[in-house]
Amino acid sequence: MGSDRRSNLSATVNDSLALVAALDAQRQLVREWEEEHGPFTEDELRPFLDVVLRAQLETTLRAVSEALRDTLSVA
Amino acid sequence: MATVDTGWLVAAERNPAAARRHVAALTRVGQVLVVTPPVIVEARQGAGDTGKLLVALAQLRREPILPEDGDRAAELLQEAGRQASDPATRVRTIGVVDALVAAVSERLGGIVYTGDPKHMTWLRDAGARITVAPVPF
User: Is B79 exposed, middle or buried (0-12, 13-18, 19+ CB in 10 A)?
Assistant: First the structure.
């Protein structure tokens, strides 16, 4: 493995660990709210989950569409 | 990761319970909500209740602005201006803060929760690879 690739890999691993740590911190925050105010109910979260999942789906579809366009332009 | 603009923080200051539900929903699907320095500045300048704003800010991961974000924001603003009949007004209306939010969002995964979908839609139409999601509360 060359030094460029090792350095990119190292950066990717660091970014991934930072993301995991950030998600853990956010989970801890949610746990603290639930201890304080009681657990979030499905009814409370449903409209927010709809929005979050729709945004995630739109982002995934855009990425797939861009990848397809790139592949077709190379071919 | 998902990014917020100043509108999210303003809405969170007004409705902290709904902001908590939004963060809980994001957490459930494994997404982290992030905020950038210019958004913090803009929100603090306009805050009605600084205490509530600081509580809202404490829910978010802080993400730095990189030099390449500045370059990308400038490109997006320039292109958004080109697409308008009055480029200077379009660029001024969008503003540097929203352009930076779009640039950072593009770098981090592409979802922006915005209180002003029009500005982000102009930036998306200018080429920003972002999903414009209105603040859901």
Answer: middle
ipTM of the complex: 0.90
CB of B121 less than 8 A from some CB of A: no
Tell me whether residues B136 and A45 touch, CB distance under 8 A.
no
* For residue A1, pLDDT beyond 70: no
Kindly tell me if the per-residue pLDDT of A4 is higher than 90: no
B61/B81 Cα distance (integer angstroms): 31
- Extended beta strands in chain B, E state: 2-4, 33-35, 61-62, 111-114, 131-134
Q: What is the C-alpha end-to-end distance of chain B, expressed in Å?
A: 19
Element (H, E) at A74: helix A42-74
C-beta separation of B15 from B135 below 8 A: no
